[in-house]
């Protein structure tokens, strides 16, 4: 009996977590939208993915983000390289002399 209460407590904690994170509201809204569709889609899972923004558009945005992150990393490396080259040509500045 104690095991049943422990698992029920974990379920309740998980349910509260989902509710607090807004997952339950989002899923409810998607399921209501599916229910209210006059012509039910042939693939309900694709409908849900589209409603949640997990479709091909989201995938293309993820790919674009990945590409931009790589470009950013390359530019940061280049900036560090140029900064170190610049320091080679700048005269050393003493704090006490002006």
UniProtKB/TrEMBL annotation:
Taxonomic placement: Eukaryota, Metazoa, Chordata, Craniata, Vertebrata
Q: What is its main location?
A: nucleus
Location relative to the cell: Nucleus
The family database entries (InterPro entries) matched by this protein are listed as: AMY1
According to the UniProt entry, the coiled-coil residues are 58-85
The yes or no answer to whether the keyword Nucleus is present is: yes
Task: From the Swiss-Prot or TrEMBL record, give the protein name.
Answer: MYC binding protein
> Which controlled-vocabulary keywords does the entry list?
Coiled coil, Nucleus
Keyword Acyltransferase among record annotations: no
Q: Which GO terms describe its molecular function?
A: transcription coactivator activity
Gene Ontology CC entries for this record: nucleus
Task: Identify its protein family.
Answer: Belongs to the AMY1 family.
